[in-house]
Amino acid sequence: MTQINTRFKNFFCKTNSGVILSIFLLMIMLLLALVSCNGNSNVRKAQELSGAGATFPLPFYNVVFEQFGEVNGDQVAYGGIGSGGGVRNLRDKIVDFAGSDAFLTDKEMADMPAVIHIPTCMGAVVLAYNLDGVSELKLSGQVIASIFAGEIKMWNDERIVALNPNVQLPAEAIIPVFRSDGSGTTFVFTDYLTKVSSMWASKYGAGKSVNFPSGQAAKGNPGVAGVIKQTKNSIGYVGSEYAFAQKIPFALIENQQGEFVLPSATTISAAASGEIPGDTRCSITNSNAPGAYPISTFTWMIIYKEQNYSDRSKEQAQATLDLIQYILSDEAQKITSEVHYAPLPTKAKELSIKNLNSVTYNGVTILQ
After folding, report:
1. What are the helix (H) ranges across 198-345?
2. What is the pTM assigned to this prediction?
3. CATH 3.30.200.20 fits 48-121+298-365, yes or no
């Protein structure tokens, strides 16, 4: 018996080790297949997501979507067509999410299935200008409103001169530049103007599209920035990153504290120091916080609370939430300052995670 055992042991040890390795690898493959068949929620095929909307956060989204793809394998296609167009696409149920710098009103929300707003970053709308020899320009809310209402027509108007006594302003006509498309940036800008000018509030109000009385229209933040750069004596409102990218100067804006402020991660964050409602829909323009840049804003991704629509799969819904969770992560939020935005305050991230936990597929919550 001892001789038999010894012969078996010698035979086993002399067997080609590659055969044993092959058997071991086969067992691992079978185990992985069983896990996949049992529907492990952490294992899914890579998805292709689509969104459309605001051009304001596009530089941030370009970076963060690419990084998300490298981490998760999912691909995100986003069309910068303006906030209004993005919301229309979501209403028509042809995208996974809409990007918007303007939160939906109660009336807009009543006209479509339940949605949730997820803030993705904070940014600033700046007054970019093209004036020969003028490297610094100070403006107040009242003066800005009067320029875009057509009441201040010349750069050497006494009201602008009073704010800039040491600046040589030209005796040239002002050319205002504004958005031609439905725009969250327009909403943020005009929301600010309604708060600082009773004239603007009564004549024009706030909205994604406003009837500006004079000036030149352009599509998207890139379009407005391009027109300003090419047009002497022009001034227009644009997302700060676009002014940085085009190397266009922009004005210091007077805040409620009487401070003339430029946008930065610090001054934008200061504008969000107040309370944030549970659904995160809030305006932070004309903040009364010391040091706050007065035309600051959140920008949102808007998604349906029930994700089973237009033949979307559960995996597609899961990928949508994975994308948003990644954007809310510290890894993604640290990118904001690198591209001239500001990271979300902790409260906004906490509320967003809570709201994501209410998102369902066929009535069952997706995040477990």
Report:
1. 198-203, 220-230, 240-246, 265-270, 314-328, 330-333
2. 0.85
3. no
